[in-house]
Design goal:
heterodimer; B: eight-stranded antiparallel β-sheet; about 35% strand
């Protein structure tokens, strides 16, 4: 059985104004050493589980994993390989902030086995980056990508955002073109979502957050959807675009209902129909692992109805959509006899296309994914 | 007890003029209930009645009172519903009495509803005792109110009792006045039984409990009886009086008010106003005044969740056990699925039934806009009775349409006469009469289409007179009107449950208003939704609901699918109260939109 491993690095130089991921800006120096130790302990604690799988994807997410030394990441990978076999063609991704890497560090990362790097660029307009609390500049991002390429990274991905303060459809479009000039194979394009527990959330509540008008934001979305495929980047998932063969193996696991193990603070796991979440508190994480206790604080057995809904809405995020065969195999029941009316309604609304093999979202369905997904939930 | 010592009376009052409080004081003063047993406003038993301060079902209670003359008297108070919807029920309750207290607020004076009921009481030759209530209020002006009663109703008020039900002032005088002035009932115990049904309720153990006033003869357990209107026969198991709980007695004699049970399963067999006689009776002449109650207002009731259809039917059946005036039959709507077309005595009755269904049976309902019954004369000579606008034949098949008209009486301070006239004109009213009740208050009479009354006449009357106007109305018959069916199309398809019948001259305006209103109610969806108002094939108004904003969660948050699912669950929860109509999701309130258009 193949397994994806997610490793959370909860440190950042500075927290972005829209971010509600578990990360902290001021604890890097104090805690990174003990955090690496704690991660090693968690891996040891999970050794029994890990030994039953082979790992074909490792994903260092954050936070900003690249605030750590490359050696630290190498150490974690080595510890992982003590307990499980890592496949030869494994995909090892690290999320990076353009400002936290230089040529030396990039080479070191590449040497330690990392073969995919995902830069959180967000925008190629400095004014927009500043307004979002990002520490890098557009120029910095470009050079980071070129340096990664020079350091031997063939598989480079960028995150771009639309709907940010001070962003216009024109600046977003020129940003897309900037990205396409760079040696990148994969692009994630996200709309800003203002979360409550973030500086943006607070600003919004106080009426101080000025966002692009609905039409303006919609134009950005439409541009991404239109321009990227024209340039060979297939929209293989609602927010993800890749050149052929460069789809993110790790993210596909989420959407294909495949197992993954999450390590570190606030990491999530999905195995054997159970979803588990580690503690979101760094202090508690350090304490529990020191006591050699698994840092899991939430665990949920996914009921059959929920599981079917999750399977459906995750699969529908992808261009390939949901194949009846996969669903029927997974649940031992016929997809259409279970979801016939939902499929019918959504087809009538022009959100879904069904054929003999399966169903997938239309362009409209992709734009209003949540409406379609919610319909698959049990009553 | 000797018939000479019985007094049967009822209380006539406008809402908020203190009827229930006065009834409570009478119970308390006569020791019918100890103060420990007193719960405020004992007679309004339903929770809804208490909340709204209205009486929906008639209640009755027997008070034993030792008068100043040293004798014991049996006083039967029959509390009547105080709303225009229940005028017939009121008339039957009054027919069971020999007297009535006319309770008028010392600050407010006579209101339209009071007036209508006093006239009803006078028609029944009731002895009327004026009671000026709330004299403890600083704004009380009993002399003015007395004068008004004399001028308007022509009653002698020199003996009017000045009272405050709240503080207990005048309660004893009222009781004495009842004993002195209200005539004792007449009746022959040896004559064949004739008893008037004035209400009933359903008891799960005993069957229907029938509220009666005995005119002649006696009712006692074991005897066979017959309902004259329905010709249904039963055997009496139990007879009793209201204290106010049910207390059994050996027999009910002429002049007495009480109840009997006879294993009657269906409240429809005990119609208000019907005459009870003995099984093999020679009586051929029923008591006067009976008529079969027919609903005036209809609407569609649909469960939000189609799976609750059976629950809704059971609930309606249970409510009908206690309420023979509620009628319903299954109907199907393309837009709303399976539901019921229900008939009510009026808007309040409709409101109360809806609220009870939602509260007592925990049902989520979609209600279509209420409408009256239209008489449609077809070109082929056939006459249809239309209780659902979507059933109206095509214009080519219609020769003409008739709609019900009422005579409306409006009492209002003279400064608002202009507003009332303007409103009544706008509502197609035909002016009949204007009378000054005193120097400041005016009584206006109009003939108005009932459909305008149930649309928004009353609300607008209240708002344009700062709440001072009071309204009463009675059905006077059907008249031909230029009526058309206004259809609403969502996304190009007509929605049957949104069709309304309106006057031709108002159709354009109403269509525009309704389309605008719906644009505000129907949420943005995955695609643009045109809303059209049309008469026949002609579109008279158009609005558009824009497609919604992009709505899709981008990030997977490091595989946190639980969080994603919970967000979607929340989203789905918010959707629950929507009805899928074709491809469009329509919130419940859209179907009532036609009614709330200010």
């Amino acid at each position: 059985m193949k397994l994806g491993v997610y490793i959370h690095i909860p440190f950042c130089r500075r927290k972005c104004l829209y971010c509600d991921f578990s990360s902290s800006a001021d604890e890097i120096e104090r805690y990174q050493e003990s955090y690496i130790t704690a991660l090693s302990r968690e891996i040891t604690g999970r050794g029994g589980v890990l030994s039953g799988y082979t790992v074909d994807s490792v994903y260092f997410g954050g936070g900003t994993p690249t605030v750590l030394q490359a050696e630290a990441l190498g150490k974690i990978l080595a510890r992982l390989s003590d307990y499980t076999s890592i496949e030869a063609d494994v995909e090892i991704t690290v999320e990076a902030n353009p400002d936290t890497v230089d040529g030396e560090k990039l080479s070191a990362l590449r040497m330690s086995g990392v073969n995919r790097i995902s830069f959180g660029v967000q925008s190629f307009t400095d004014e927009v980056l500043k307004a979002a609390g990002r520490i890098h500049s557009a120029e910095g991002a470009k050079s980071a990508v070129w340096q990664a390429n020079a350091s031997g990274f063939d598989n480079v991905s960028l995150d771009l955002m639309y709907g940010l303060p001070k962003q216009s459809a024109a600046s977003f479009r020129s940003g897309l073109n900037e990205a396409l000039k760079l040696p990148v194979r994969h692009l994630s394009v996200y709309g800003l979502k203002v979360e409550d527990n973030t500086p943006f959330g607070k600003m919004a509540a106080e009426g101080r957050l000025v966002l692009p008008e609905e039409e303006e934001e919609d134009a950005m979305y439409q541009d991404a959807v239109r321009i990227l495929p024209q340039r060979g980047f297939e929209r293989y998932e609602i927010s993800n675009y890749a050149l052929p063969g460069y789809e993110s193996r790790h993210n596909l696991k989420y959407w294909r209902y495949q197992p993954y193990l999450g390590l570190g603070v606030a990491a999530h796991s999905f195995m054997h129909n159970r979803r588990a979440a580690n503690t979101r508190s760094l202090a508690q994480y350090l304490k529990l692992t020191e006591q050699e206790v698994l840092p899991v604080v939430e665990e949920e057995r996914v009921s059959e109805g929920q599981a079917m809904a999750e399977f459906a809405f995750l699969a529908l995020r992808t261009k390939a959509g949901l194949r009846y065969q996969d669903f029927n195999h997974c649940f031992g029941t016929d997809f259409l006899s279970h979801y016939g009316p939902v499929v019918e309604t959504m087809t009538a609304k022009g959100a879904v296309i069904a054929d003999t093999k399966g169903i997938r979202l239309t362009d409209r369905g992709m734009k209003y994914g949540n409406v379609v997904f919610a319909a698959f939930l049990p009553e | 007890m000797n018939t000479a010592n019985i007094r049967n009376f009822s209380i006539i009052a406008h809402i908020d003029h203190g009827k229930s409080t006065l009834a409570d004081r009478l119970l308390e003063y006569t020791g019918t209930l100890s103060s420990r047993e007193m719960e405020d406003q004992v007679l309004d038993q339903m929770e809804l009645e208490r909340e709204r301060g209205i009486t929906i079902k008639a209640q009755s209670v027997r008070l034993d009172y030792k008068a100043k003359d040293g004798q014991m008297y049996m006083l039967n108070l029959i509390d009547t519903p105080g709303h225009v919807d229940f005028t017939y029920e009121v008339s039957r309750s009054l027919a069971a009495c020999e007297g009535a207290l006319l309770v008028v607020d010392a600050a407010q004076g006579i209101e339209a509803q009071t007036l209508a009921n006093v006239y009803l009481a006078l028609e029944h030759d009731l002895e009327i005792i004026p009671v000026i209530n709330k004299i403890d209020l600083p704004s009380a002006d009993p002399e003015r109110v007395k004068q008004e009663i004399e001028d308007v109703i022509g009653l002698d008020t020199s003996d009017a009792v000045l009272a405050s039900a709240k503080t207990g002032i005048g309660v004893e005088e009222i009781l004495e006045a009842i004993v002195r002035k209200v005539p004792a009932p007449k009746g022959d115990a040896n004559a064949p039984l004739r008893a008037l049904i004035f209400d009933s309720h359903f008891d799960p153990y005993k069957g229907v409990i029938v509220y009666v006033r005995v005119m002649d003869g006696v009712i006692k357990p074991g005897m066979k009886i017959k309902m004259m209107a329905t010709d249904k026969r039963f055997e009496v198991n139990e007879a009793g009086v209201f204290r106010p709980y049910l207390a059994t007695v050996d027999e009910l004699r002429p002049g007495q008010v009480g109840f009997f049970a006879a294993s009657i399963k269906n409240v429809k067999d005990t119609r208000v106003g019907d005459t009870v006689t003995d099984g093999e009776s020679s009586v051929t002449e029923p008591l006067p005044g009976y008529r079969k109650v027919t609903p005036m207002v209809y609407c569609g009731l649909y469960p939000v969740e189609s799976s609750e259809y059976d629950t809704l039917r059971d609930a309606l059946e249970k409510l009908q056990l206690n309420d023979a005036s509620l009628v319903f039959e299954p109907e199907t709507s393309v837009a709303l699925g399976f539901g019921f077309r229900c008939g009510f005595l009026g808007l309040l009755h409709m409101d109360v039934i809806q609220e009870r269904l939602e509260r007592e049976y925990n049902l989520a309902l979609i209600t279509t806009a209420p409408n009256v019954i239209y008489m449609v004369h077809k070109t082929d000579g056939e006459v249809l009775r239309i209780d659902n606008p979507s059933h109206l034949p095509t214009p080519q098949e219609i020769e003409h349409i008739e709609e019900p008209y009422v005579k409306a009486t409006i009492i209002v301070p003279n400064e608002f006469v202009g507003s009332v006239m303007e409103l009544s004109q706008e509502k197609r009213g035909e002016y009949q009469d204007m009378k000054y009740l005193d120097t400041t208050r005016v009584m206006l009479t109009y003939h108005l289409p009932l459909s305008e009354i149930i649309y928004d006449y009353f609300d607008r009357l209240k708002s344009s007179t700062r709440g001072y106007a009071s309204l009463d109305y009675e059905l006077i018959g059907y008249k031909t009107s230029q009526l058309v069916k206004l259809d609403i199309l969502l996304n190009g398809a007509p929605v049957d449950a949104l069709s309304v019948i309106v006057h031709q001259d108002r159709a354009q305006y109403r269509g525009r208003l309704l389309a605008e209103k719906l644009r505000g109610i129907i949420p943005r969806q995955m695609f643009e939704i045109p809303i059209q108002a049309a008469i026949g094939n002609k579109v008279i108004a158009r609005e558009t609901v824009r497609a919604m904003r992009k709505d899709v969660l981008a990030k997977c948050y490091g595989g946190d699918i639980t969080r994603k699912r919970k967000l979607l669950e929340k989203q789905k929860e918010g959707k629950k109260r929507m009805k899928q109509v074709g491809n469009v999701e329509v919130p419940q309130e859209a179907f009532m939109a036609i009614l709330k258009m200010d």
